From TrEMBL:
Organism annotation: Streptomyces aurantiacus JA 4570
Family: Belongs to the cytochrome P450 family.
GO molecular function terms listed in the Swiss-Prot or TrEMBL record: heme binding; iron ion binding; monooxygenase activity; oxidoreductase activity, acting on paired donors, with incorporation or reduction of molecular oxygen
InterPro entries in alphabetical order: Cyt_P450, Cyt_P450_B, Cyt_P450_sf
Name of the molecule in the record: Putative Cytochrome
Amino acid sequence: MGRLEADPYPIYGRLRAEEPVAWVPAVGAWLVTRWDDVRHVLTSPESYTTTNDASPLSTYCGSQNVLNQEGDRHAAIRKAVGDRFRQETAPAVTAHARSVAARRLGDLADRDHADLMAEYFEPVSVETASWLLGLDAVDGVDTATLTRWSTGLTAALYNPTKAGAAHVTGAAVSGAMDRTLTPHLARLLDQPDDSPLSALVHAAGPADDASWGVHQTLATVRMMTSAVREPGWLAGNTLHALLTHPEQMDALRADPGLLDAAVYEGIRWAAPVGAVGRLTTKPLVLGGQELPAGAPVAPGIASANRDEAAFPAADRFDLLRARTTTPLSLGLGRHECLAAHVVPAIVEGALRQLLERFPELHLEQDVRPYGWKFRKLDTLPVGWRDRSAAGA
Ligand code: HEM
């Protein structure tokens, strides 16, 4: 497990070649590593379901969360809230992320180094996602609270034993979110507004269950809260890739128009979500492996992104690669990330503001991303030599 957490990519490469659907005891699931198989699993809900009421996601977020739903209830939630996350909203999201980023960078202006994860990427990500979801209008929810909730939930979701300190924190966050959000949701039931929270609470639900709106909204918002730092992780992983590939960073400095290519390549090469989860709905064969009904399967999206069958020279971080294939980092099919269009917009806003303000950024320590299910940097210590260029 240690090797998988430290650097899963050599292991993924071996599995793709030798055992593309492999039982990994430490993961407790069949790990799927080839591009074609991962795509097949994600786009075949009749054979591979997200519904798993015993999963940590259901335990800590609530089983009515959107990701745990299939069929009509899932479609109703996506329909209710989908408009807020369309491609057309991306420019407004980038602009908002840039304004949040400018304020955060202003706080760093009289410094010459910082830990960009704690002091920049995560706060920009959390604040922008909070605005996007309408959580910034809820009494008692500020950036620090949302960050604490997100951290507690992520730890609990990463803990298949559902025991120990992560369990205690996960259960406490779940309860705190219930107490904080319920009065706001009750108000929105009577007085709808144009926020995603309002759209969620009014999503069409089962006729015989009047409490469904509030319950599924609480569960879905907990699930989304676990994700509010992820755009920051992606921005950190992408910047780290650029700083450790100086020729790529030079190309970007020479042509800032390459930033969207850098974000695309960061999403592919440095995916912050490495694998997702499914249960088989019936006995079937996947990648030559017979699986019974109810078998836990982990589609390895980060592995698929490094499959030569989909991306030539897949292990190379290369801004100039042809963008003909969409990486799987934001999922695919019915459960594709709700924020798939806005995540690149947040990352682009945060990176553009940073690189314009501090063009001479450099790494101050040899840090590396860690983790396989979630892969991110704990710290990103950087300095900026040329403070006059900071415009401070
Ligand atoms: C870099 C950032 C992010 C990444 C890499 C990411 C990745 C993913 C992936 C891979 C899935 C598919 C899960 C599956 O198929 O089992 C997913 C689903 C989802 N994501 Fe994200 N996500 C990110 C950020 C966010 C944010 C900021 C939000 C909310 C504001 C969000 C909301 C959702 C929701 C609601 C789903 C479930 C969709 C459904 O079941 O229909 N994600 N995400």
